[in-house]
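Render Lon protease in 3D.
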Amino acid sequence: MSEVQQIHIILEEDFSIYPFMITPIFVSDPKNIQALNEAYKGDKKLFIAYLKEGKSDEFYKVGVVGDIMRKVSLPDGRVKILFRGIARGVITEIVQNSPLCGKVIPFVYQSYDEDHLNATMEVLREQLSTLANVNPNITNELLRATEEGGDPNRIIDLVASSIKPPKTQAFELFAKNNIQERMILLIEYVVADIENQKLQKEIKSRVQSKMDKINKEYFLKEQIRQIHKELGLEGQKEEEIERYREKLASIKPFISAEIHKEIKRQIDRLSKMNQDSGDASIVQNYIEWVLEIPFGKFSKQKLSIESVEKQLQEDHYSLEKPKKRIVEFFAVKELLALRGKENKDSKGTILCFYGPPGVGKTSLANSIAKAMGRPLVRLALGGLEDVNELRGHRRTYLGAMPGRITQGLIDAKEMDPVMVLDEIDKVGRSFRGDPTSVLLEILDPEQNKEFRDYYTNFNLDLSNIIFIATANDISQIPAPLRDRMEFIHISSYTPQEKEQIAKKYLIPQEMKKHGLKSYEVSITPPALKDVIEKYTRESGVRNLRRQIATIMRKVAQKVLVDSTKGEKSKISITQKNLAEFLDKIVFEIDPAEKAPQLGVVNGLAWTSVGGDVLKIEAVRIEGKGVLSLTGSLGDVMKESARIAHSVVKVLLNEGKLKSTIKLPKTKEKPKPVYEVYDLHLHVPEGATPKDGPSAGIAMASVIASILSDRKVRGDIAMTGELTLSGKVLPIGGLKEKLIAAYKAGIKKVLIPSKNYKRDLDEIPDEVKENLEIMAVERIEEVLKEALV
């Protein structure tokens, strides 16, 4: 629950329902039944509010928001529901009294000191261990749950539901938003319960019943049977148990003896339990989850690389290298399938598409799933911190559920889906564990045949799943995890490629989404080019799609207005009227300066969202030769600046670089120019962190410019690592950097000689045709081309 919602409300006297708890509720009050029926007709959302002590119409504003999982009308007029609590909520306004309905906002907890809370948790564990000796409600599972840690609010709710304090005290604990205060208050209740239980035990020992154990059990069971008979529930439980047994028998050929034993044990356990007990709900929930796992169900479509290749060509423009590599990957899989008996022990490869946002990583996985006729399951891993989200929660926790992998199989309804692990480079770590450790097991073909979900408590075979990961920056992926994947780079699109993608895919798709016909709207090529170059700032086409959608919305509005007047619309988007459909221009890269400038050089940089032109500036100030660096530079970039400074000093000393600066006259021996002036080197956009060695030759050029008093060509850009001996070393990300130079209107680019020989074939023809690309091996060659 993340925003204000309008929810139907029922009032409860007994304080027994907490978030993340699945429990039956009997409703008899007509107003409550009316609110319940209205909620069940709608989104099945319900708010449980608690009546104040001794009041029939006054209730607390803090309660539990949840779902109605099941609803049964009883013969005596009551209604039984199975309610699943989701979160705490707060009523801000009553909007309707019959049935009761109000506006509910999420309950917000205060932040807390983790060390302080851990110390308080230790005290709670000690007191619970003492209480467990005198109170049978404090089970070993509850003690284990507190030992294993997890969400402190869940632990507090779990303990409170077990000790059942008086209603006023229970609500005071329930409504506090300070976790530290909640835990201290709970410890007070636990200590009070210890004393109470000791007193009860003493009294019971004096008046202990002599009733025979067998007769007592018979009497209680007979009572339960009669109650069920009166409620009309006799036979319903048996039907459910029989249905579970039939489902288990149908999947028995496809599961191991371990799985069969665990599910059968839980079904037998449920058959002996009272249907209305809290434990019965937990066990039944478990059985329904595990029986939904699609054991023995696999895709019937045979793998064909022709269909994969055809689907990729239909869905994606350009990306030739990635598409070729994907086809090769599935060619190997098809060959192994044909020779299955000979290659049954062969292990698969996990693909990882990496590149800037919006270049088509996830949509490539969609195309693969479509071509193979398999369901697609997408797991968004961005910001995931809790290891139990993947592994599953142990059933001792309130609201425990299977992990996302198991839920993905249930959603797919097959054991061999295409599973996309989106944003794998953004997985986090916290006190809840390190999810990458689970991903190591999931993505390892040696281990994922026996992946254990903590909730199901048995091993699942994940080896038939095709895992495809996506990432923006693979350097953020831990090394052991990188080792299990094969990386396919999806690089930035050139403006020409974006234009073709817009014409063939984006414009037709957006026209269809907005209900427009092809004869009603057209975008001229010059206007489309302006949208690409002046209204988007990206390496992919995601923002381009948004801009096209903006145009289509305004066109749709105009078509609707014209149709009401009986007029037919034919709207053409041109360069002249484009500003009517889009708001403000955003230049992706500043155009290159035409005139040479002193102390300003165009460097080329790679970022996780594509290439960029990095202007590096320097000024000289009378001083003692100190080099100052600003612009949020990383350690490697700072070292590159110092190397560049030293290289230029050497060139000045050797006379390979001449300075025309007039130095002040002194009686002493004249100092070199670099000892007379301090240098301040700055890389603009100071709030953006920058690092890497590839700006080495650009920094040397700007320092040489300022110390020699010679200007740098404005239409030239450069990239390359520099050594102390003046050699130019190769760099990465050349394609993105050259595309950025092309977009900025640069005429000439200096790149390392090794990159020229090795990587030039990957550069789009459009870029090579419009840029003069020159290979350099030493800094002298760079300065010869750059300085005027």
